[in-house]
Design goal:
By secondary structure, this protein is α/β, with parallel strands linked by helices. The protein contains eleven helices and nine strands. It folds into two domains: 156 residues, TPP-binding domain (Rossmann fold); 83 residues, SIR2/SIRT2 'Small Domain', CATH 3.30.1600.
């Protein structure tokens, strides 16, 4: 058996033996769906756009036109994307009772589109937006009808500014969601980290919670992460191919 096949078999064994497994996903799982990650040297989104100029809560409040010039086409682009095979395999893991659910840093809705049911979206999602004044909620498809002449999304009820329900730079993560994600990570025998550099906190601390409770970490991510030395398994090839191989090994 080749080293790669041994590693795949080892991950399948860990999943089979685990009483409680959680999946943690980052931007890398959505790259095959045509969504660039954030920090890759040549293709990362923040290599082309300075997030401090378009994606902070201060920009939203103080230069809302600039904020929506970035986010309006991003809403269109993300809303049209479809899940790839990696998302569907994660959903199948859940359907087969192999995982408790998925904690994701992604806002793209692709886990839900793939069929996952238990999803903790720690950075929010593009599914909805809300008026910061009166609180009226708007579904993704409704937001595009709310833009005024200068390109700011405004509430039909009170003319207040509409903000996406995503976590911007400078904002705290939703407390209930991160608390639930922390609890499930602490209770897990195994956390499988897919497509995440595991460098953005507080989400990057979740594998440490699993380790501290006596659980194990598996990493399916190209490139190094701070947890490579602690991982029971590290697969760093194509995420879809690696997950396909694990699924096949599970039988």
């Amino acid at each position: 058996m080749t080293p790669e096949r041994e590693t795949v078999a080892r991950l399948a064994e860990l999943i089979t033996r685990s009483r409680s497994t959680v999946v943690l996903t980052g931007a890398g799982i959505s790259v095959p769906s045509g969504i660039p990650d954030f920090r890759s040297a040549t293709t990362g989104l923040w290599q082309r756009v300075d997030p401090l100029k378009v994606a902070t809560i201060d920009v939203f409040h103080n230069d809302t036109e600039a904020f929506w010039r970035f986010y309006r086409p991003r809403f269109h682009d993300l809303g049209a994307k479809l899940p790839n095979r990696a998302h569907r395999i994660v959903a199948e893991f859940e359907q087969r009772g192999l995982i408790e659910g998925v904690v994701t840093q992604n806002i793209d809705l692709l886990h839900a589109k793939a069929g996952s049911k238990r999803i903790w979206e720690v950075h929010g999602s593009i599914a909805s937006s809300g008026c910061i004044d009166c609180g009226r909620a708007y579904r993704l498809a409704e937001v595009d009808r709310c833009f005024d002449a200068v390109g700011v999304a405004r509430c039909a009820d009170c003319d207040g500014k509409i903000k996406p329900n995503v976590v911007l730079f400078g904002e705290m993560l939703p407390e209930q969601v991160i608390d639930e994600a922390s609890a499930i990570a602490s209770a897990a025998d195994l956390i499988i980290c897919i497509g995440s550099s595991l460098e953005v906190y507080p989400v990057a601390a979740l594998p440490e919670l699993t380790l501290a409770a006596g659980g194990q970490i598996a990493i399916v991510t190209q490139g190094p992460t701070p947890y490579d030395g602690d991982a029971a398994v590290k697969l760093d090839g194509d995420a879809i191919a690696d997950l396909e191989a694990v699924l096949a090994a599970l039988g």
